[in-house]
Amino acid sequence: MMPVGPLMIEHRLIERMIRIMQANLETISKEGKVDPAFVDTAVDFIRTYADRCHHGKEEDILFRDLAKKKISDEHRRIMQELIEEHKMGRNNVRKLVEAKEKYVQGDKDALKDIVSNMEILAKFYPKHIEKEDKRFFIPCMDYFTDVEKDTMLNEMHEFDRNMIHEKYTGIVEAYEKK
After folding, report:
1. Number of structural domains found in the chain
2. C-alpha span between 46 and 18 (Å, rounded)
3. Any residues with CB less than 8 A from the CB of 147 and at least 6 apart, and which?
4. 11: which of 2, 22, 70, 133 is 20 to 30 A away, CA to CA?
5. pTM score, two decimals?
């Protein structure tokens, strides 16, 4: 399997979560309220799976290795766009968390900020994924030898294996500091 195989498989799960977020947006608009637990779940999914796991492998492995190659100006431009898009996604997730906290504390006006940031994420991810799948991942594999691809794939598996330990070690350490 090419290193982009796992990344593209991860895209399919992210797309499924985005569809669930879109369905929740419809429910919010009908009912005029949001389930804060769903927002927490969506945020955890995006932060842990879409950003730390998925974008982590892109940035820490694929983009790092591409940066060492002589790639086309077009691919370099797209790679920079993708990095900026990842930052924008993180910013919107942060704003979504802030709005949810205000909403839970009784600020009903925060609902519009929850909706706005969920809509931004729900519109962002499909376009972002399409760009990676159709215009970036596959053509960029031509820059690598088979040995380099195998090395990246192994590093991605190791990244996944270590991530769960990283997440829950962080949780325990945060509580220990309290």
Report:
1. 1
2. 9
3. none
4. 70
5. 0.91
